[in-house]
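Entry for the shared binder. Reason: the reviewer on the internal report wants the predicted structure included alongside the sequence.
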Amino acid sequence: MTTVQEKGTLSISTENIFPIIKKFLYSDHEIFLRELVSNAVDATQKLKKLAALGQYTEDLGDLKIEVSFDKRKKTITVSDKGIGMTADEVKKYINQIAFSGAAEFVEKFKDKTDASDIIGKFGLGFYSAFMVADKVELITRSYQASETEAVRWSCDGSTEFELNPAVKKQRGTEVILHVNKESEEFLDEFRLLRILEKYCRFLPVEIKFGTKEESVEDGVDKDGNKKYKTVKVDRIINNTQPLWTKSPADLKDEDYLKFYRELYPLSEDPLFWIHLNVDYPFNLTGILYFPKVKNDFELQKNKIQLYSRQVFITDEVKDVVPDFLMLLHGVIDSPDIPLNVSRSYLQSDSNVKKISQHITKKVADKLQELFKKERESFEKKWDDISLFVKYGMISDEKFYDRAKDFALLKNTEGKYFTLDEYYDKVKALQKDKDKNVVYLYTTDAGRQDSFIQSAKNKGYDVLVLDGLLDSHFINTMEYKLDKVLWKRVDSDTPEKLIQKDEKPQMVLSQDEQNQIKSIFEKAVGRPNMTVSVDSLAPDELPVVITLSEFSRRMKDMAKVGGGGFPMMGDMPDTYTVAVNGNHVLMQRILKAESEEEKTRLARQAVDLALLSQHLLTGAELTCFIRRSVEFIA
């Protein structure tokens, strides 16, 4: 048996590697605890593996990892009962491999401002301890060693280290951090607890952090009632078998809902979920939940948590999950997602792209399955998930190809149709003279009701498209669907919305049309409104004021961003005032005895049209009300 006692210099080419590690390696100092606990978990898992293979036959005993701190001594300790290390292994894994990795790191990044694109080197995680410690001690005993072969390694953050014999009865490793003055914030129970709960709450080995009080049964009193007493028990901060590690066949709906509430305590219950379990060509597990998507969906992003072997990494998963799927909630766990050296940022990699594509496919498959098996239930959920589906169809070509079979359109009657079903429904009646099928839609059924009723009077159907992304969705669908036009129901008169070869015959002569146009131009009196006299059905309104489909669409898109026409939101609106030449009011105006009476009647009809478009306000609205009272009187 050899007694180990030596001092040495770490073989690296820089005088002091630790300031560089502190500056470049980790952006957030609290990560040191994640790294040390993760190393302890790895050591414990390796021992369990050896036991399972029959290469370790002694009693495993209690395998809890313990995190403790001493405010007086200014130390934080992470202890495990894993495989431990011999003196030679300490020299190899702590001195040589870790520092050769660190030296390469320094050489590569000494002139850089960050290290976000370096692949992690084995052992560097251990040295995150020096972000918060002036001195780090490691006391370890290998599962193969006898009692006298435990060793103590220590380093004060310079290139010097000491390696000495130590007395340690149990196998495993203790890492003791002597916390520096700048990091004394970590010598606080609640600070450490929050870090452990953030990064370690689902690690596969129990992690103890202090104790807590718990009420337990203590017999019965004289009346037969149960008595309780308060005892101190270990505070275990993690769930070692989170839901995504279990087989879906063993889980019930309530299990998924309970886990969701654990992840998002203040959220409404999700609509449904997908349990991911892939082992080829990459490893991926997880559960993705479909929340009720609100219009202000930016607030719902960054709710997916990324783990690597149950270690929390980040909730910024935009490189793994396509942007439109960021609206989902839940957990993804994959050891095959490449991370930078600090495990804080994702690396660009072909695996990441494959995982992203696979998640997209699984989401689409789940929606397709729900639609086919439970269409009625799917329709009830549609209003809550339509924003998410449309977002995907707009932004992801492969998702569109799958979603076009289950995406739904809803009409003003509250009925739902697939894209193919709706085309078949309206293609006969809503085809214009150029053979285009025209889809009419409303963005506000209440405000646009008079236009909806006019369309229905002609037998037309009207869709409800009042969502945040519907202006973009319409543009996408118009591009995708051949010979289909989309027009807002109030963007033109009923005859011009869907132009047919035949139209109502004009009652007025050309001279009468010219008179009516002149009268209404005087009544309108607005430079941004153009008057036309149209041949409409006699039972249509006497005056219809419209804003063109192009102008409306550009304005709507400018409101939510994009579309390439942001300036449209600031441009003045130009309206068309369509006067119904076949309405009985025109004859009354022409027969009025005075020009004043003609203008007054025309003004009343114009104001009614302005009112229907919510364009009548202030003094003009007051004037209209008074004039209406006079008409009644």
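Summary line for the report: The longest strand covers residues 207-220.
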